[in-house]
Amino acid sequence: MATITVERKPLSLLERTYIPNIVAGLTTTFKRMVKPTETLQYPEQRPAIPTGYRGVPTLVNDPHGREKCVSCQLCEFVCPPKAIRITPGEIANDDPNAHVEKRPKAFEIDMLRCIYCGLCQEVCPEEAIFLQNQYSMTGYTRAEMVNNKDRLYELGGTLPDQHYKWDKKKTAAEAASRGGHH
Q: Which partner for 106 in 51, 87, 139, 158 could form a disulfide, CB atoms 3.0-4.6 Å apart?
């Protein structure tokens, strides 16, 4: 196999002094000095969040402040990294909301495992779990990065309810006694 030699042309005097490269670097520097700044002063300034952004998963209440989650555990089963843990809890028979099957006794999302895929929100039949626009979750320990039920409701807030699971359905006898035959 023959060796191929590539001939290089010799550098000129100007090129050997590196003056063109230094001038090019200074030109870039001076352009940046007069150009408006692109840096945001985080956390005081935050970038615009695009529509459809998938941020921190949270639990939401209905407009009356009642929890929407019924512990169906679909979000726990569909979660790819197994970041969600739900402990179902019973509702006492003397509770005004006894007509609803159950509510979560404990609900935890490990934010260190969460991959923000949004499957939990998509699968929830009660629209109880939503991905919020919050994107900066921090903590000093692993335990701080596990959001419990109270923290999830604190982050989630209240959203309109399309299911009205807490409202009792009127029976035919109640409707007849009020004069409404619909």
A: 87
* Nearest C-alpha neighbor of 68 from the set 163, 168, 181, 182: 163
Q: What is the pTM of this model?
A: 0.66
How far is residue 126's CA from residue 118's CA, in Å, rounded to a whole number? 15
Contact 102, 93 (CB under 8 A): no
Q: Quickly list DSSP for 56-89.
A: -EEE-B-TTS-B------HHHHH-TT--EEEEEE
For the segment 146-161, what is each residue's pLDDT rounded down to a tens digit? 999 999 999 988 877 6
Residue 146 backbone phi and psi in degrees, to 5: -105, 110
First CA to last CA across the chain, in angstroms?
95
What letters, b where the CB count within 10 A reaches 16 and e where it falls short, cover 84-96? bebebeeeeeeee
Task: List residues bridging with 130 in a β-sheet.
Answer: 58
Distance between CA atoms of 126 and 179, rounded to whole angstroms? 32
Pick the CATH number of 57-156 from 3.40.50.1010, 3.40.50.300, 3.30.70.3270, 3.40.220.10: 3.30.70.3270
What does the alpha-carbon distance between residue 9 and residue 7 come to, in Å, rounded to a whole number?
Answer: 7
Burial of 29: CB neighbours in 10 Å, binned 0-12, 13-18, 19+: exposed
